[in-house]
Amino acid sequence: MTTFQTRLDQLDKFFLSERSKKTIERIILVLAIASFVLHLVCIYFSEQIPFLNPDSPLLGNPIAAVYTPFSFILVYEVYLLVYYLPRSITTYISKQYEIISLIIIRRLFKDLANLKLSTDWFTIKDDLQFTYDILASLMLFYLLYWFYRLNKNRKKLNTEDRTLGIAVDKFVRFKKIIAVILVPLLFALAVFTFGKWGYLEFADNDGSLKELKNINNIFFDEFFTILIIVDVLLLLVSFFYTDKYHKVIRNSGFVISTILIRLSFSVDGLVNTLLIVFAVIFGLAILAIHNQFERHLES
Questions:
Q1: Among 69, 74, 70, 62, which Cα is nearest to 112's?
Q2: Positive/negative CA dihedral, 213, 215, 216, 217
Q3: Are 185 and 64 in contact (CB under 8 A)?
Q4: Residue 230 has pLDDT above 60, yes or no
Q5: In the prediction, which pLDDT does 268 show?
Q6: Half-sphere exposure of 216 toward its Cβ, with a 13 Å CA cutoff?
Q7: Residues 68-87: tens digit of each pLDDT
């Protein structure tokens, strides 16, 4: 075994082993609970604590406190996405869909705290966004259910892949390299972006640094940009190991789905929600057609 392979296995064991996953899960859970309690304290004492901005939409209602622990849960989902990257492309993609659906759920908690109950519901922008998001969350939940049902056939569909032996091992090794690089990179990005958000949202009393237009996009705007790069790399490298049309289309379709999700962060309102839902529908359709193609080839 080469020195590079040994180091790669060591880093993989350190970042992506089952033991590491459980440790990170416990840490995130503790941080989520602590952040929830801290956020509640900040809400109740926002007027008394000098460095807090009492006009922040996240300090006006205790319901908004759920937003903060949900952010930690999303970070753990990001880790799970990287964790499953070397193991299964389809599971890796499903984690992308889970993340975007949880972003919408998190947004709902924030919007719930600022709802304006009136007869003008459909003319108030924030209330309309809440309506879009609550319908989208139901649709995404159902679409993910079907995505996982289709993905249950993965073991059967991968029978031919296992016969490729060394080629598949090399592709898995490449995905391990990508995953090992992503863990510290995304951790550093999360610390920087969430730290910056925390300061701007809670402590920027004069509003001089309010450069963040949509706090729901913090970290995940950059995260999905990185995912597009990763997905394109996986697509290109996969050409070394398979030239089968249906697999190329499947991998290309997943890249398009990720790009659509990334584009959703650049728009607001109904267009934002429609882009997210369509991205998941597109990925689901790609997987369904790919599976049918596999069955046809096997018959």
A1: 62
A2: positive
A3: no
A4: yes
A5: 84
A6: 26
A7: 888 888 889 999 999 999 98
